[in-house]
């Protein structure tokens, strides 16, 4: 590659950097990287170094350093959205509404309160993970989820140094890029399920993420420059707190998610789940009616279950069998009763 072509490549990098809105120190650092690249000329290793510098620039210009969404602090609208997606969960909803009220009263003031870091703890299927998107919708914030189940290294969260081949940022920075804003609702899902060997290191990163005195200067190893996470609204989930470090628990507001009673499951199935399942199966409410007397059989096909995942699978199975009969030329209206319910329940 001749000098003209080399100069053209580095000028493209400079133009990309100039157009980006970056912290001044980070921009200076990137300019120095481009300057060193230009000095390499046609020397050995130029191609690899160009790829590294170009990839780094692509990452830093894509991050939402100064981009934030504006919060909707309307308590009535927030309550309606939370109720639309979730039955019950009164303690969680009340805590969020309390925080929104505080934000509304302190907006623009020096004493503006920090977001509570909620940790929803409960058995499988009790609605922990689905609360994150609802909260984001209520606030009109972006939503991102980071799964901790099976996470095997703190470097997965914090990234690797650019000295390593194929280095890239960690899950936190990747989530911010996906969000496109610096104040998303970030769900840290199943923080109790990281691998045992990496637990101590991962808990150390969690302390930094969740501590308001530290997260304004969170440094990813790949970026090698601090990113302010203080505006992120973190929500964590876990099946229990046994495997969560005390230092992490100290920074969380633990909310226990109770098991659903049969009565609550029936209400959830009627109000939330059945309309959704019918729509996803291409059916309408005219296609299916269900006798009140058989709902207990639908919500408990295998005995007691704390969550609602089995219930959702059961309704999916019912809808699938009905859809098959309609497409096969059968009736278009079905009424489930004690006499025929066994024909539509899935075979477990």
Automatic annotation (TrEMBL):
InterPro entries: AAA+_ATPase (IPR003593), ATPase_AAA_core (IPR003959), Lon_lid (IPR054594), Lon_Prtase (IPR027065), P-loop_NTPase (IPR027417). It comes from Candidatus Beckwithbacteria bacterium CG1_02_47_37. PANTHER family: LON PROTEASE, LON PROTEASE HOMOLOG, MITOCHONDRIAL. This is AAA+ ATPase domain-containing protein. Coiled coil: none annotated. Pfam families: AAA (PF00004), Lon_lid (PF22667). GO terms for biological process: chaperone-mediated protein complex assembly; mitochondrion organization; protein quality control for misfolded or incompletely synthesized proteins. GO terms for molecular function: ATP binding; ATP hydrolysis activity; ATP-dependent peptidase activity; serine-type endopeptidase activity; single-stranded DNA binding. It comes from the Bacteria.
């Amino acid at each position: 590659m001749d000098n003209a072509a080399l100069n053209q490549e580095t000028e493209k990098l400079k133009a990309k950097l100039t157009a980006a809105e970056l912290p001044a120190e980070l921009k200076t650092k990137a300019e120095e990287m481009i300057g060193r690249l230009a000095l390499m000329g046609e020397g050995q290793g130029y191609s690899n170094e160009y790829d590294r510098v170009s990839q780094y620039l692509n990452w830093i210009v894509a991050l939402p350093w100064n981009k934030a969404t504006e919060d909707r602090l309307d308590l009535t609208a927030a309550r309606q959205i939370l109720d639309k997606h979730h039955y019950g969960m009164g303690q969680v909803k009340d805590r969020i509404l309390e925080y929104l009220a505080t934000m509304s009263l302190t907006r623009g003031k020096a004493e503006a309160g920090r977001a509570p870091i909620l940790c929803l703890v409960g058995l499988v299927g009790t609605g922990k993970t689905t609360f994150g998107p609802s909260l984001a919708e209520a606030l009109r914030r972006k939503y991102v989820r980071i799964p901790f189940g099976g996470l095997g290294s703190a470097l997965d969260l914090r990234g690797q140094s650019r000295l390593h081949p194929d280095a890239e940022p960690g899950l936190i920075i990747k989530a911010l890029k996906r969000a496109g804003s610096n104040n998303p609702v970030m769900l840290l899902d199943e923080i109790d399920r990281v691998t045992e060997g990496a637990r101590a290191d991962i808990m150390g990163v969690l302390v930094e993420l969740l501590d308001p005195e530290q997260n304004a200067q969170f440094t990813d190893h790949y970026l090698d420059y601090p990113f302010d996470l203080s505006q992120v609204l973190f929500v964590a989930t876990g099946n229990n707190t046994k495997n969560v470090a005390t230092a992490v628990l100290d920074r969380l507001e633990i909310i226990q998610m109770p098991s659903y009673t049969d009565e609550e499951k029936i209400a959830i199935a009627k109000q939330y789940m059945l309309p959704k399942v019918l729509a996803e199966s291409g059916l309408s409410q005219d296609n299916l009616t269900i006798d009140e007397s058989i709902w207990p059989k639908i919500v408990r096909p295998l005995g007691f279950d704390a969550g609602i995942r089995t219930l959702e699978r059961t309704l999916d199975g019912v809808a699938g069998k009905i859809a098959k009969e309609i497409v096969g030329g059968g009736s278009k209206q079905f009424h489930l009763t004690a006499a025929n319910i066994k024909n539509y329940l899935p075979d477990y």
